[in-house]
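Researcher: I'd like a candidate sequence for this fold, 363 residues long. If you have to choose between options at a position, lean toward the conservative one.
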């Protein structure tokens, strides 16, 4: 039996660290440190799928790289395309876990919605990912790899924005997410501006505090979804561990302006009184509020608030001086909301054709 020698996974490293390792390696192989720099640029800046395909390098050096380092791929299991240009990808990982990535074009912008965990432990009552339970944290290379894989497609996707709004809770995987933030933002990595990178959390306080320490202007979104502990506990069990008042306090202490996400559930959290309570919370920490129409393919038996109901709710917030936006529907012919593609695959194979899927809401 042959055992694979342990190769260093370059895609788990921050770009500066990868370059340092590669330059030292190149020097040790007698090809000059600059060759290491060339390899480093093929990780994220001008991504190339394998060492063999790095044709600007000497052949023997490519073989030596291949023996010492790994550039793992994520296997694309499914892709669906919406008529509005939204594309949804299901990747299969080495252990069979599957994760979703969504690309959402909007004018000159292309937003990628990436996953940070396989499954999720938080069990928010309306969310499809919560239904499948938690499998495991993704590694940095599996999270940033979603961006890399899309750049390697025959029709490459190059994002202007990245949001951690796919499967999982990024702040429960901060160790990997903090490296991914560097990879995405570093000019020697993907080079995406920090203000174009948003981490969305249910309010995991240690994660928010850690992110506040970062000098870059990464954006923070908090899934609030209810203006009182009583209601929030019912929708989001995590509220028992991290109650609303402490989450708002952390948002106020955060160095940059935060966004509240608020999914509109008919007859549950969408009444004018809820809006007035929410306005108070938003004012306490200067938050911007994003109202999200419910994606009906989630969990539970919730119904979406009507468009008029959402507008009424928004106008109460505006009257209280709170800035508010209603997230628009994208990819309405494919199921692109959190966890839905994977749940779809688990429930029935082959997946239903796109025209039988329900509505999709993403940023
Ligand atoms: N765990 C993080 C990030 C992943 S979910 C978080 O909760 O913030 C990204 C957003 O999608 C969250 O605001 C989540 O509440 C929302 N979401 C989940 N299921 C949804 C559904 N069925 N309809 C609309 N939004 C949903």
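Model: Candidate sequence:
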């Amino acid at each position: 039996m042959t055992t694979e020698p342990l190769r260093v996974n370059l895609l788990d490293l921050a770009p500066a660290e990868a370059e340092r390792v590669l330059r030292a390696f190149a020097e040790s192989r007698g090809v000059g440190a600059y060759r290491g720099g060339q390899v480093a640029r093929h990780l994220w800046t001008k991504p190339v799928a394998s060492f063999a395909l790095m044709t600007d390098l000497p052949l023997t050096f490519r073989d030596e790289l291949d023996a010492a380092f790994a550039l793992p791929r994520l296997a694309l299991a499914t892709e669906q395309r919406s008529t509005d240009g939204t594309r949804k990808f299901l990747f299969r990982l080495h252990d069979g876990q599957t994760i979703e990535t969504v690309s959402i074009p909007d004018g000159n912008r292309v937003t990628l919605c990436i996953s940070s965990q396989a499954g999720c432990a938080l069990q928010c009552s309306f969310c499809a990912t919560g239904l499948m339970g938690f499998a495991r944290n993704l590694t940095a290379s599996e999270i940033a790899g979603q961006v890399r894989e899309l750049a390697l497609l025959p029709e490459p996707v190059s994002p202007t924005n990245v949001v951690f709004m796919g499967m999982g809770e990024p702040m429960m995987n901060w160790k990997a997410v903090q490296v991914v933030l560097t990879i995405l933002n570093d000019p020697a990595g993907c080079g995406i501006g920090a203000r174009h990178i948003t981490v969305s959390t249910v309010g995991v306080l240690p994660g928010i505090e850690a992110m506040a320490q970062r000098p870059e202007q990464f954006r923070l979104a908090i899934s609030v979804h209810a203006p009182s502990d009583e209601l929030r506990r019912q929708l989001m069990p995590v509220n028992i561990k991290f109650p609303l008042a402490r989450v708002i306090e952390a948002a106020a202490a955060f160095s940059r302006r935060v966004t509240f996400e608020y999914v509109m559930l008919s007859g549950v959290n969408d009444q004018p009184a809820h809006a007035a309570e929410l306005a108070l919370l938003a004012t306490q920490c200067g938050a911007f509020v994003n109202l999200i129409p419910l994606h009906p393919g989630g969990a539970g038996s919730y119904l979406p608030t009507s468009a008029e109901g959402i507008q009424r709710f928004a106008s109460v917030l505006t009257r209280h001086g709170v800035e508010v936006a209603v997230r628009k529907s994208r990819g309405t012919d494919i199921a692109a909301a959190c966890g839905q593609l994977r749940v779809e695959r688990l429930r029935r194979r082959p997946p239903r054709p796109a025209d039988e899927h329900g509505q999709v809401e993403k940023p």
